Every structure is written in structure tokens, then in C-alpha cells.
Amino acid sequence: MQRIYPCELTVEQYVATEMERQVVAESVCPRCQSARGLRRHGCYGRWVTAEDGAAVLILVARFLCAGCERTISYLPTFALPYRIIAAATFQAFLSGDWRASAVDRWADLLRSYERRMHAFHPQLLRVIGRGLGRAPPGGKAFWPWLKEACGSMTAAGAPTPTGGALQDYRLQELPVSSAVRGAVNTTFGKERTGSNIRSGRRPHNQNLAVGFGADQTGR
Question: Of 28, 55, 60, 125, whose CB neighbour count within 10 A is largest?
């Protein structure tokens, strides 16, 4: 299971400070609601774009629940699950801000993200109904509506340990709650790669970079 962890650092700051070692897990397992505790279970490496568009390897903290014996990972807010392009870059693209070098560098892949987001629009509305206000029928009006309702691409994504705009509608209790996350995350499809790093040691970037492609990333 993946959770979004509040993080105000940039991608580079996250790596430099080894922020994955400072992540504090929730006291109650978000999967089984057990209060037996979550213990560290290493981390895994994945890629995410920095402000200049360069792909940077980060480590994502992972914990193991003593109750259900399943893992929970905590992805920093600047990253979109299963996507290499950072949330801020995708938001800039959707808002028509081409001043960001990362937008121009990843334009083709960003267009595919946008197409998948629009294709998911009807499913999102079936999940949330009018919980975020009257939605447009689709097309280019979809992102402005979602941004106005949630505030940002990050806020519109997966529920966080501290809450979030979509959590106000108790969407986590719905069996199709993953569909909501898909509006900005999993609906785009899953870009592959990333490596499990059980020891928690920081890997050598070149080792994990082998086979890395423009549409590949971790989790």
C-alpha cells in the first residue's frame, strides 16, 4: 500500500538530507487498522524529475505492519505514484506554463498523461458525484475545475496521513477509492522500474539507471 507523505523539500533537498530516513509512520496501520505498530522495512529506489527536468533517483521509506504483515510505503508529495514526472511539472503543463524547462523537456510524455487524465474523467465523477461541486462535462475545463476544488495537483492525489481535500468525502471507505487517486496518478498507467533496497543503503545511481527510459519509473 502506498501513502503520500507531506514533504515541502525539493527533490534535490530530499536526496541530500536522506529524508527517507526521517519519515515517521502512522500509529495505526492504514490497511488493517491495527495499532500494533509499523516497523521500518527498508526502502526502494525510484525516479522523479527535478525542477530542471533531470531524472533523480530517490529512496522511498517502507514499513511493515505487525498486524496484517503487509508493507506500506510513504511517497513524498512532490512525486506522483507510478509516474516519473513530478506533480508540480504536470500541474505547470496543465496550466499552460511552458516557462518551466521540465515542461518542455517532457512535453510528449506530459501530453500522454493529460490524455489519460481526460479519459478517466467520467470514472472520477462516478466516484465522487458532486462532492467537489458541479463538474464540467470534460475536456480542457476538467483541470481548472479540479484545481479550484482541491488547490493543487498534490492535494488532488492520494490521501495523506494528515488528511486531504478528497479525504473530506470519506472516499477511503469506498471500494473504488483507488479510482480517485487514478485521476492524477494510476489512471496514467504504471511506468516500470525501481528497485527494492531492503538494507536501506543508498544505491549507486548508475546501477539503477540501467534500462531507464523516458516513461519508466518506480512506485
Answer: 60
Q: Using CA atoms, how far apart are residues 46 and 63, in angstroms rounded to an integer?
A: 16
Q: Which residues neighbour 174 within 8 Å (Cβ) at sequence distance 6 or greater?
A: 127
* SS3 state of residue 115: helix
**Helix (H/G/I), strand (E/B), else coil: 112:** helix
Rounded CA-CA distance 129/123 in Å is 10
What distance in Å separates the CA atoms of residue 123 and residue 158, rounded to the nearest whole number? Answer: 16
User: Please, which residues have CB within 8 angstroms of residue 89's CB and are 6 or more apart in sequence?
Assistant: 49, 51, 53, 100, 102, 103, 106, 110
Provide the residue-wise pLDDT of the chain in tens; the chain has 219 residues: 889 888 999 999 999 999 999 999 999 999 999 999 899 999 999 999 999 999 999 999 999 999 999 999 999 999 988 889 999 999 999 888 888 889 999 999 999 988 888 887 787 777 666 666 676 776 777 787 777 777 777 666 544 343 443 333 333 333 333 434 444 444 444 554 354 444 444 443 333 222 223 344 445
The neighbour count for residue 179, using CB atoms within 10 Å, is: 18
Cα(87)–Cα(75) distance, integer angstroms? 12
Tell me whether strands 71-76 and 2-5 are parallel, antiparallel or unpaired. Answer: parallel
pTM, full prediction: 0.70
- Domain map (residue ranges) of the chain: 2-209
